[in-house]
Amino acid sequence: MIKVTSEVKTITQMTRDLPGPLALIPTMGALHEGHLALIRRARQLVGPNGTVAISIFVNPIQFDRTSDLANYPRPLKSDLALCEKEGVDLAFTPEKEFLYHSDHSVIITESLLCKGLCGSSRPGHFDGVLTVIIKLFNLLQPTLAIFGEKDFQQIALIRRMVRDLNIPVEIVGHPTVRELDGLALSSRNIRLTQEYRKDAPRIQRALSAASDLAINGEQNPAAYLLSAKKHLLANAPDGFFIEYLELIDAESMQAVSLITKPAVLATACYYGEIRLIDHVKILTG
Ligand code: PAF
To answer: Which domains does the chain have, with CATH numbers?
Structure first.
C-alpha cells in the first residue's frame, strides 16, 4: 500500500498514471465495518487491476462544535493497518496545512438541499464537506467515489455538486451497515458510555416502528413524526434528546404535507455530547 501525505504534483501525477479505474473512499478515519464494506465494494467495482484509494482526514472546517472536533477519534496507525489488511492500494492522509492554506477563502456552498436536517442544525457543516470533497476529487481524480448512505443528506449534496459543477466522477452510495442490534455504524459509537451504547438502538427501532405506518398507506407526515417521537422518548436515559426529527421528500429534501412520493424520516439525537443520525425510507402504496 502506498501512503501519501502531501505533494500535490506527486499524488495527482501518480493517480493519473495508474492504468485502471480509481475508486476513492473519503473518510475521517476511526474505520469500522461500515468503512470496510465500502473498501470491499470499491474493489468489486474497480476489479483486481484498478486502484482502491482511501483518504483519512478529520476535516476541521466541517465541524460546528470545537469539542466534537477535539474529541473526534484519530487512531491513524490502526486505521492504516486495517487498510493494508483489506487490500487498499493508496492511503491519502494529508495534514491540515497541506489541504488548507492559512488564508484559504474559497468554499463550496449548496443552497437548496442543505436547508433542513443536518444542514440547518449544523450551520456551515455541508460547506465544509463539499469543499473538502472537491479538493479530494481534484487531487486524486477518481473514476468513482463511494459514500455510506447513512449520511443520506451528505450524499445527496455531493451528487448535486457533481451534477451542477460537471465533475467527472461517479458517485456510488452504499447501504447503511448496522450492528446486530440495529444501531447504524458510526465512528462516534465508540464514544458512547456503556449505558448509552445499550440504549442507542432505540433510534433505529423508533424510525422502523414509525415506518410501519406505511403498511396501511398512512400519508400524513404528522402520524409518522408522532410515532417516532413517542418511541424515541419513551423511558429514554438522562442526557438523551432529539436534535431534529423530520419527514421530507426523498428527492427535493423539502418537508411534505402529504406523502405521495418516496419520503425519508430522519433524525439526529444526542446521548450527552455524542450526536447520532439515522433515517428510514417511507414508501406508501
Ligand atoms: O462522512 C464523512 O466521513 C465525512 O463527512 C467526509 C465525507 C469524509 C468528508 O470529510
So the answer is: 3-174 (3.40.50.620), 187-282 (3.30.1300.10)
